[in-house]
Structure to design on (363 residues):
């Protein structure tokens, strides 16, 4: 039987296929920067207007990419299925539900702009769509990779963590929904909170399983192609997102009287935050080594430098609030400077690549 996942993916420079699932990483990175900015600077005055303007821009980018993605499924379902089964491209399909979640989190900043009812409905709809689509994609992609008797080590990277990142990320939007809607819709808030617990469990154990597999691959095989180096930062993103989700669920469960206060949840959150810090250092060393060898040309994968750091900043500030430690807040602020630096570098390179057409030749 022919293995569809191993067939080469061909793209015409004039077709919609040049815009693939990888592009949603832009929404992921930009949305993370907006969420950090809102926490650092607030939503009042001109700063709030700029942030809400950014939310509209990110929503427009997401809507455009989603429309292209859906049109591609309608006109070429066989090619889209081939991409989804591919050992490299398939994992990036998880970026679609991740982007939905990020947009939902961004819209929580839009209360005064569009009204509370519209914000609540948008967040609820995106949360439901993201968990259904994310669960489906993670199962399909994982099952497809399990059917492979062997894996080309050059095709195995930390992008394999995207499935676990997605299932752990959905509760971040769920936590916001519970915070904002617990008094208005208590039964709905309870349902969201319990569902979030289940998805954190999925994300945590998938993270453990895939991280163990990936470390084994890196220790036993040659380094993957240099353009895939930025995906190593997804280890940071996964750990930080898991920590944020656990801390948020613990806080909200107490608020809606679902569970008693749990010091273990805070301990686990801090422990994962520690793993995130270690992962940042590992990712930085890996990226720096490839960069000084002049083997790190710009691709959309550079956006993987942005979102994980934004998650780490939010995680640091959340832990600081939970433990009432001001130095952790300062620590997070230092990383926010790094976040804005990375964002500026990646954004400029993206615009240049877009204007020169190089972005469309990356496939």
């Amino acid at each position: 039987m022919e293995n569809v996942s191993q067939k080469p993916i061909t793209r015409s420079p004039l077709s919609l296929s040049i815009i693939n699932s990888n592009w949603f990483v832009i929404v992921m990175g930009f949305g993370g920067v907006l969420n950090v900015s809102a926490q650092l600077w607030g939503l009042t005055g001109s700063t709030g207007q700029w942030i809400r303007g950014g939310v509209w821009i990110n929503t427009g980018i997401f809507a455009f990419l989603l429309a292209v993605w859906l049109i591609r499924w309608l006109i070429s379902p066989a090619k889209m299925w081939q991409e989804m089964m591919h050992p490299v491209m398939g994992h990036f399909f998880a970026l679609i539900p991740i982007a939905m979640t990020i947009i939902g989190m961004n819209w929580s900043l839009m209360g005064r702009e569009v009204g509370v009812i519209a914000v609540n409905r948008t967040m609820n709809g995106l949360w439901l769509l993201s968990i259904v689509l994310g669960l489906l994609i993670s199962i399909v992609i994982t099952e497809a990779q399990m059917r492979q008797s062997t894996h080309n080590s050059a095709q195995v990277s930390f992008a394999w963590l995207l499935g676990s990142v997605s299932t752990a990320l959905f509760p971040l939007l769920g936590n916001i929904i519970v915070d904002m809607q617990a008094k208005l819709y208590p039964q709905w808030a309870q349902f969201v909170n319990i569902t979030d617990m289940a998805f954190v469990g999925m994300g945590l154990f998938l993270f453990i399983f895939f991280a163990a597999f990936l470390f084994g691959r890196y220790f036993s095989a040659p380094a993957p192609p240099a353009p895939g180096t930025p995906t190593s930062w997804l280890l940071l993103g996964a750990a930080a997102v898991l920590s944020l989700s656990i801390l948020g669920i613990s806080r909200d469960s107490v608020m809606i009287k679902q569970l008693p206060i749990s010091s273990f949840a805070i301990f686990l959150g801090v422990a994962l935050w520690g793993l995130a810090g270690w992962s940042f250092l590992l990712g930085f060393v890996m990226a720096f080594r490839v960069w000084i060898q002049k083997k790190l040309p710009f691709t959309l994968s550079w956006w993987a430098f942005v979102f994980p750091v934004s998650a780490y900043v939010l995680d640091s500030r959340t832990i600081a609030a939970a433990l009432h430690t001001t130095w952790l807040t300062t620590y997070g602020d230092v990383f926010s400077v790094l976040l804005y630096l990375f964002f500026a570098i990646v954004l400029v390179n993206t615009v240049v690549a877009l204007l020169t057409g190089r972005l469309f030749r990356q496939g």
Notes: The two ends are 27 Å apart (CA to CA). Confidence is low (pLDDT under 50) at residues 1-5.
